[in-house]
Amino acid sequence: MDATPACAKQHKGPIYSEDAVINANGTLKNAFVYIKSGLAKRDYPVPPAPVKLDQKGCIYVPHVVGVMVNQTLEISNSDDTNHNIHPMPKENREWNESQPPKGDVKVKTFPKEEVPPILFKCNVHPWMRAWVGVVSHPYFAVSGEEGTFTLKDVPPGEYMVGAWHERFGVKEVKVKVEAKQSLTADITFSAN
Amino acid sequence: MWNPWLNRYAYLLAIATLLLVVAGASVTSNEAGLSVPDWPLSYGKLMPEMTGGIFYEHGHRMIATTVGFLSIFLAVWLWRVESRGWLKKLGLAALGAVIFQGLLGGLTVLYLLPKPVSISHACLAQVFFSCTMAIALFTSKGWLHGAPEVEDSGGISLRSLAVGTPVVLLGQLALGAGYRHKAIGLIWHILGAVIATGVVLFFAVSVLSYFQSHRPLRRTAVALLSITFAQVFLGVGAYMSRIATLEAPQPMPLMVWFTVIHVAVGALTMGTAVLLGIQVLRYVRRPRLEVEARQMATT
Ligand SMILES: [Cu+2]
Question: Which residues, chain by chain, have CB under 5 Å from ion ligand 1?
Fold first, then answer.
């Protein structure tokens, strides 16, 4: 990163790769969790608020994020340098666009469900990677600093919950949700 | 009439083209091909900030533009002063190839590196480089003075090998490009290396053993053998460095450099094989018996 001063000056301390972040309490950050099966087939309303993906200090922020099918993703560049944004989907259409320093926000949507998440690259800065999961319903989350995630307002039923992590692969757990119940499910990944 | 400046200029173009191959290979190895999403301009400019991957991609475009202009000038020069009509046409063909090559390069960017286009771009690069080396040979003093003719010994004809060896090498370069652009597995390039090395050895060693005292043939054959040995070594190096740095953050400089030099020396191997092929076709006559047999057949 030192090769591009505009990148390095945004950081004070050392910079670590985000491909496997273990939280202080031993939990895993940046796992993408979603209901994989068991939901009734219906059209879930797309939230009007956009999901944001920024490039700051030549890092995609956040590293892992989810959007609903056709929900807008706003991509911005907070850096004083050029980036190219290059999602490499398997289901959706691939594209590659440049974004100049503090350039106009890009507004994008993805019309097809896609998990494992879409890898976003920047070829100017080969370390820059983000993952964007695209789901056809609103029941998805990304594990945070405490290693936790929350799927809100899930209707009663039996579901398969899927979890994906870029280094540790995929895991699944079965859950049964009763009406007005709050339920905890643990998902464990092991280093391979 | 030998035109020393034309000859030097042809060498200059060949060297510039080899540099261009190095630059192009660096783009692939640094995965920088898409760091500049627009073409022919870069970030809407002639000269963007040369940072990160843009350094490789835009640098490649700048050297390519230079080689393009050098090729235009060479074609015009040949057209105006050269007496051999076929060489004038070769100059034009080279110019056509380099223009087409530029368009292929643009297509790789605009269509996000479609494998067939990337692989064609890699192969045409090698063909164009061989072309520049051939023009440098045809405008050289040694070629214009000529050398004595010798007779093919029969067996597997050297004249067939003269054509076959560059074809086999181009196939091997295509397999290498196929692997680099993730169209095929590495095993095909390794198998290809065994065959290509065998064919080159057979061709060059045959030339050396039959026509050791023929200066142009001997010199090119020795050059081809040395470059091929270096190339095999570099190939093994590129593979070993890839294995050794598999777990490190990519791309690793050691692996990048081994691979880039392997690509450039691959171009040099092909170019030298083309030169030896051309010289064999000129200096090595068909065996007399075969010529007589043909004459009998036609009369
Ligand atoms: Cu970037």
Answer: A 83, 122, 124-125, 128
Are A96 and B37 inside 8 Å of each other by CB? Answer: yes
| A-chain residues near B53 (CB < 8 A) | 84, 123-126
Tell me whether B37 touches chain A (CB under 8 Å): yes
Please name the member of B31, B37, B49 whose beta carbon is closest to the beta carbon of A126. Answer: B31
Asked if A76 has any chain B CB less than 8 Å from its own CB, the reply is no
A169 has a chain B CB within 8 A of its CB:
no
Bridge partners (DSSP) listed for residue A164: A32, A170
A101 touching B (Cβ < 8 Å):
no
pLDDT, one tens digit for every residue, chain B (299 residues): 899 999 999 999 999 999 999 999 999 999 999 999 999 999 999 999 999 999 999 999 999 999 999 999 999 999 999 999 999 999 999 999 999 999 999 999 999 999 999 999 999 999 999 999 999 999 999 999 999 999 987 677 899 999 999 999 999 999 999 999 999 999 999 999 999 999 999 999 999 999 999 999 999 999 999 999 999 999 999 999 998 888 777 778 889 999 999 999 999 999 999 999 999 999 999 887 777 777 777 76
Burial class (CB in 10 A: 0-12, 13-18, 19+), A23: middle
Q: How many CB pairs under 8 A join A and B?
A: 57
Q: Residue B247: list chain A partners with CB under 8 A.
A: none
Instruction: Write down the pTM of the prediction.
Output: 0.91
Inspect the interface and report whether the beta carbons of A126 and B36 lie closer than 8 Å. no
Chain A interface, best mutation among B28, B34, B38, B41, by max A CB count within 10 A:
B34
For each of the domains in chain A, give its residue range(s) and CATH number, in order of start. Answer: 5-177 (2.60.40.420)
DSSP one-letter string for B46-115: SS----HHHHHHHHHHHHHHHHHHHHHHHHHHHHHH---HHHHHHHHHHHHHHHHHHHHHHHHHHTT--H
The pair of three-digit structure tokens given for residue B246, joined into one six-digit string = 């598999």
Phi/psi at B249 (5° precision): -60, 135
- Of A110, A141, A183, give the one whose Cα is nearest residue A31: A141
Based on its alpha-carbon atoms, the radius of gyration of chain B, rounded to whole angstroms, reads 21
Which tokens sit at B156?
Answer: 């597997």
Do B138 and B90 meet the contact criterion of CB atoms below 8 Å apart? yes
